[in-house]
Amino acid sequence: MEKTDLTHVQEKTKASALHKTLGPLHIWALGVGVVLVGQFMGWNLGIVKGGSLGALIACWVIGILYICLVMVTTEMGSVIPESGGQYAMAKYLLGPLAAFNVGLMLVFEYVMLEAADALVVGEVLKTLSPDVQALPYVLLSLLALTWLNYRGTHATLSLNIVLTGIAFFTICVLLFSTRFYSAETSLLRIQEMTNGLPYGWMGILGAFQFGCWFYLGIEGTVLAAEECRSTSRALPVGAVVGLVTLIVGATATWFVCSGLLPAGKLAGSVYPLFDAAMATHMPLVIHLLFIGTVLSCLASANGCIADASRAWYAMARDTLIPDIFAELHPKYNTPYRAILFLLPIAIAFGFTGLLDQVVTFSILSALLVYLLTGYMMIKFRKMYPMGSIKRGYTAPLHPLPTMLLLALTTATLAGMYFGYWINIASGCAFYFLASVWFVIHRSRYLDVTSYMATGAATLPRPRGY
């Protein structure tokens, strides 16, 4: 690679870089906004596989998985402040083929989550009246959020601060409306409503899959690393505070829903928190949870659009996919072509009506990324040992968090096999065929100069290379 060519591409890349406008609160809103919807729907499917206590144990154990995940991704993300998050890490640590797969997995993780949001919004709107046609409202909502992302990330995530804050507040209202703190007046009847561990420890393993839904997407905070005013401050603060918010909210959600709804009904609910609110027979609480459910879906879809488009844009900028998607809007400086391209895909999956299938493919894509992330952390520490490069954040107790991440991710995939082995096989086959397409066809168009430009400007030569 000629030095003059590399310098030219680096200057071009810098000129087309995304604006640095985000602070810790925006990163919190991106992470929590994407994930909070998982407390309004999806997590309760774990009761089918593991029973009520299996779902609770999965909530806490998978919480440990995500604590480890946030630690390792934040360390690597603070050193590689590039749009694309785990994709950008794979780009420098694993090479083009692995980076292509990680980028594709990230896109489908968030596109599928956006589709699940659309499904739930449609189901909630139907509770207003059997005659309500949900499709126009869902389409208008997704179009409005796409337009907002089109106009700029700062405004998008500023809105997410409001939407996420209101949605989390409604969970707190539902919790305190039950007077859970009073043994005499509490409406919560945990012992009567729950069904324990009907399938033993195997059920707990099976419930891990849907325990992820409490936290799935918090790792997407690193996708906006390039747009942070101070990456070393915004990423750790926003991600850690966001994770604490989710752990508290997830525990409260399980507690309230399991005390207000029988396990059988809770397991099959499309919107468990809203059903729990209706079980209180308090009009104000029911109305607030209706609003909270809709707003959580909108906040999640909003964040998913931002995350998926950043991954798609980063891949296009590095020529792993056609660079037509790497164009930034001349006025708003947003990856508008990537944003618009992914919208119809999310809508198409959203209106399949298969919530558990959409959720499962999103979880599978995420788990595959987590496995590769654990491996990347081990390689990152070997390539850039402590003291060799400035870190904005350092994951403590290495390699323990990485080992826990790999072990719990593997256990979750094993649990997913029970009932969803066809989904696992289909998903792996899809990514395998995509890899074949990349090697045979797309790799011929890979521009190595563009691919390495940003990293060559920010990272020193790693040890041993």
TrEMBL record:
InterPro entries from the UniProt entry: AA-permease/SLC12A_dom, APC_superfamily
Record keyword Transmembrane helix present: yes
Subcellular localization: Membrane
PANTHER family hit by this protein: AMINO ACID TRANSPORTER-RELATED, MEMBRANE PROTEIN
Source organism: Desulfoluna limicola
UniProt keyword terms in alphabetical order: Membrane, Transmembrane, Transmembrane helix
Lineage, broadest ranks: Bacteria, Pseudomonadati, Thermodesulfobacteriota, Desulfobacteria, Desulfobacterales
Superkingdom of origin: Bacteria
TM stretches of this protein: 21-41, 53-72, 92-113, 133-150, 157-177, 197-216, 237-264, 284-305, 338-355, 361-378, 399-418, 424-440
Mode of membrane association: Multi-pass membrane protein
Residues in Amino acid permease/ SLC12A domain copies: 33-445
Protein name: Transporter
